[in-house]
Amino acid sequence: MPFLGRDWRSPGDQWVRTTEGWEKLKIWRVKVFENLNQNVVARLIRLALLDMKCSRDDTYERRQPFILFNKGITRERKELTSVSEALVRLDMTGAVKDIRRINYVGKLLELILENKLPGLSGTAQKHVIKILEAIIHQALETEYNTGFARQLLTTADQVLKTGQLSHIGSECLWTKHQDTVTRMKKKLEEFQVTQRKNDGKMKLVDLPDDCVRCILSRIVDHKDIMRAGMAQSSIHIFSQERLLWQQMCFFHFTNQQIITFLPQVLDDKDVDWKFIYKRCYKRFGKKDLYADCLALCSSCCGIYWQSLGHPCVHKENVTSTPLSPQDFLKLFSL
């Protein structure tokens, strides 16, 4: 006979009914704070600073999003850390607005959509779709990462169709996800890039050649360089330079990987660095670069964003392990 606690949804947890369904009370409180209007938050902080007679009237510190990761059940704690709680407490929706963290969140969302979405709980599925909506909204508002946003929508649409009969959760919720993805795809199809006016501000082609070459060499996908060359003649000249491809090889691949395709009998002037880059790209894949990523504290097992810091009790001799999107999902056995 199954055991039924005081609350059949999760014994020991308090739940509240919202417009989106039932949610845990502790997670709902965090979401309410994160979804507050920015003007309201700024006003509340300004009033708090005035009460404290703080001299910093225009600057404030936002709540540091982090979560204490519980590896297993102990006598003191009878609850495991869920992936839905981690997505809320780490403020994945707000991280989309930060240019340093959006690539990390996008890669994490891509991994979840490709392999994990049908196996997630209904609450986790709602959080994933909400993060996807935030990425699409940010792409339409800033006109940045529109190609990656379109790719995420295509992946989500395929997964929702293939997982129609094998997903966890209600059929009504799964249909709601499909309607949301369809609506976002329609918005993205109607989107048109705004032509930049001649405002007199500096452009990429106005920078020195060394700066332009350094910027292009750090672009993750070389296809973006080729597309930029089709749109601008000066960028096309850079894309055909041997020096640019040499810098891209040494930045995106290790010396051991480059030696695999580097001929030993030729001089340095005879090396075709563009050919070597293509071979390394095909063999070893694309290098993932993140300006900011999550980290796991070795002292308190807290997961936090490296750029925002972590309010750990142990200030000294604290080591942290950076977490790639794959490592983050492995913590939750996904």
Structure characterization notes:
- With 334 residues, this protein is an alpha+beta fold.
- Among the domains are: 1-63, no CATH class; 219-284, no CATH class; 294-331, no CATH class.
- It has 15 helices and six strands.
- It has helices spanning 25-34, 38-51, 83-89, 92-95, 102-116, 122-142, 146-162, 171-189, 209-217, 222-231, 233-239, 242-252, 255-259, 273-284, 325-331, and strands at 15-18, 21-24, 66-68, 294-297, 302-305, 320-323.
- It has a four-stranded antiparallel β-sheet. Strands 1-2 form a two-stranded antiparallel sheet.
- Strand 1 and strand 2 form a beta hairpin.
- Helix 5 packs parallel to helix 7 (146-162), helix 6 (122-142) runs antiparallel to helix 7 and helix 6 (122-142) runs parallel beside helix 8.
- The radius of gyration is 24 Å and the shape is globular.
- Mean pLDDT is 81; it is low at 1-8 and 53-61.
What's the short version?
The protein is an alpha+beta fold.
Q: Pick out the low-confidence regions.
A: 1-8, 53-61
Number of helices: 15
Largest sheet, in brief, is: 4 strands, antiparallel
How many strand segments? 6
Per DSSP, what share of the residues sits in E-state strands of 2 or more residues? 5-15%
Widest beta sheet: strand line-up: 3-5-4-6
Radius of gyration: 24 Å
Tell me the distance between the termini.
Answer: 30 Å
The amount of helix comes to 40-55%
The best one-word shape is globular
Secondary-structure element string:
EEHHEHHHHHHHHHHHHEEEH
Secondary structural class: alpha+beta
The whole-number mean of residue pLDDT values reads 81
Keywords: Nucleus, Ubl conjugation pathway
Protein name: F-box domain-containing protein
Subcellular location: Nucleus
InterPro entries: F-box-like_dom_sf, FBX25/32
